[in-house]
Amino acid sequence: MKVFKFGGASVNSIDRIKNVGKILDQYKGQKLLVVISAIGKTTNALEKVAEAFYTDKKEEALQLFEQVKQQHLTTAKYLLVTNYIDCENQLKDFFTEVDWLLHDKPVREFDYYYDQVVCVGELLSTCIVSHYLNEAGVKNQWMDVRDIFRTDDNFRDANIDWGYTQNKVTHEVKPVFNSADIILTQGFIGSTDENESTTLGREGSDYTAAIFANMLDAESQTIWKDVEGVMNADPKQFSEAQLISELNYTEAIEMTYYGAQVIHPKTIKPLQNKQIPFYVKCFLDPSLPGTVIGKNPVKNLPPIIVLKDNQAMIQMKSKDFSFVGEKPVGQLYHLFEELNIKPNLTQNGAITFTCVLDDRPEKLEKLALTASDVFDVDVMKGLKLLTIRHYNKEVFEKLTNGKTILLRQQTPETIQVLLQ
Ligand code: ASP
Ligand code: MG
């Protein structure tokens, strides 16, 4: 049994959806659990719907949602003949759920509504792709992952209930393979014990796939992307980026931790825990070898470069010249947890604590405001955080030449600098 995940870019046109069929056809006779994301930029579009709804712009929300509906109906029309009516009916059921909600007035917190609206993207895409594949002879069983993945109600960043979900996977997913070769389902979404939809954080489909791989004891997991595999830098930022054909779990988890976008950071652990080989392959050319991530140490890795834009540096200096010791630092971390802030870099001095964060203005303001009770707070924005693993002098100098370094942290393996 293998687990596959196809991202939004792999289903963002009629041809690409057909291409998913061609790829799956090459695995005929094998058991596959296939996770598919929302089509193209649907998740972003649905975020706009939720925002409009929550800011009392009902008409705008309905109109934006209408566009999402039409795009999906059009895609279904192009792809389907015999299954069109069935598909349309299923799509309309999902539309109705959201339409009902949009006609209400928001009374709960934003994140709750966000999840009820945004989760529909994956339901629509998998519904269309499943009907298309069945019509094209790639027989598959569609499944609503919300019936399997139980989470808490930490909307937009929900946590999996592992015990409950494992039980469902064992008793409700596994037996389906007795009668079907392919199970097709959604990533990124789940549901609470009160049947409210939840999401696992943006780009969370990789993570869903990894949880399935773990719970089904899959022989491997593959994510199909529009790049050749894992590169040593983002090819959109660095034209000389090169393919890394082999990596191990440790290296992969470090890269994603520092912000490499290629894989969702939570994906590695469930695979590592069961030593499941993880492939990153190119859906545009499945004959390319891609990258394999496994347990074996890999030598001679090139420098791995991660550049994060839009960073803010916050400096907190104690007002009364007292040391920034365990207590205030503990309080700060408590505040991070409360605001769900993950600092990208921290540095502690005698009377100052400095941290670097993604610039999310609402969170930064709250943090700065609360911290200003005890500290003098200084915020600097518009910065870049450069991380290089397996750095050498040459690469470091090339990437920092002529730039002002505001902060630097270094171990024998990794160097991080905050650039202006
Ligand atoms: N559709 C979701 C997103 O765009 C989840 C995913 O693609 O992994 O964030
Ligand atoms: Mg995606």
Task: Describe this protein's structure.
It is a single chain. With 420 residues, the chain is α/β, with parallel strands linked by helices. It has 2 domains: 2-225, Acetylglutamate kinase-like (Carbamate kinase, 3-Layer(aba) Sandwich), CATH 3.40.1160.10; 304-419, VC0802-like (2-Layer Sandwich), CATH 3.30.2130.10. 39% of the residues lie in helices and 22% in strands. The chain contains 13 helices and 16 strands. The protein has helices at residues 14-25, 42-54, 58-79, 84-103, 110-118, 120-135, 162-173, 205-215, 249-257, 268-273, 326-339, 361-371, 393-400, and strands at 2-6, 32-36, 141-142, 182-186, 189-191, 197-199, 220-225, 246-248, 278-282, 291-294, 304-318, 345-348, 352-358, 375-389, 405-410, 414-419. The strands form 3 sheets. The chain has an 8-stranded mixed beta sheet, sandwiched between helices. A 6-stranded antiparallel beta sheet has the order 12-13-11-14-16-15. α2 runs antiparallel to α5 and α4 packs antiparallel against α6. The radius of gyration is 23 Å and the shape is globular. The termini are far apart. The model has no long low-confidence stretch (mean pLDDT 96). It binds aspartic acid and magnesium ion (MG). Residues 7-8, 37-38, 43, 121, 187-188, 202-205 line the site of aspartic acid (ASP). Residues 7-8, 37, 203 line the site of magnesium ion (MG).
